[in-house]
Amino acid sequence: MLRLNVNGRQYEVEADEAMPLLWLLRDLLNLTGTKYGCGIAQCGACTVLLDGQAVRSCSLPASAVGEAKIVTIEGLHAAAAHPVQRAWAEIDVPQCGYCQSGQILAAAALLAQKPDPSDAEIDEAITNICRCGTYPRIRRAVHRAAELAAK
Length: 151
Hints:
By secondary structure, the chain is an alpha+beta fold. It is built from six helices and five strands, in the order E-E-H-E-E-E-H-H-H-H-H.
C-alpha cells in the first residue's frame, strides 16, 4: 500500500513498489494530464512537480516519492489560472498540445525559483521536448508568466 499526497489530497493505493509514478497517476488515480512520451525520462511529457521540483515521472518509482507533495497539471490551479497557464493561453503556445502539461509544470518550477529568468535560464531549465517546435512561444510565455506573477 502506497500513501501519496497528490494535488493536495491524500491517497492510499495498492501498487507494485516498482510501478513508475506516471502509471500510478494515470492508471490508478485517473489523472491523465500527465503524458507518456519516451519512457526513459528524456522528453519531459511526464513532468510533474515533486515538492516544487520538476521531475520526470515515467522513470521514478512511485514508492520513491515518500512524503513529498506531488502536483500534476490537474492540480496546478483549480481554475487553470496559474500565471503560467494564463500566459500559455494568452501566447497560444500549444500546437498539438501533447507535451504542454510537462512544459507548463517545468515552467512553473523554474519561475518558483527564478521569478524573472533570462532566455538562457529558460533554455537551461526547460529541457522538455516539443516535436512541434513551439520553443519560441514557450520562451515568450515564460516571460509573460513572470510578468503576470509579478503583478
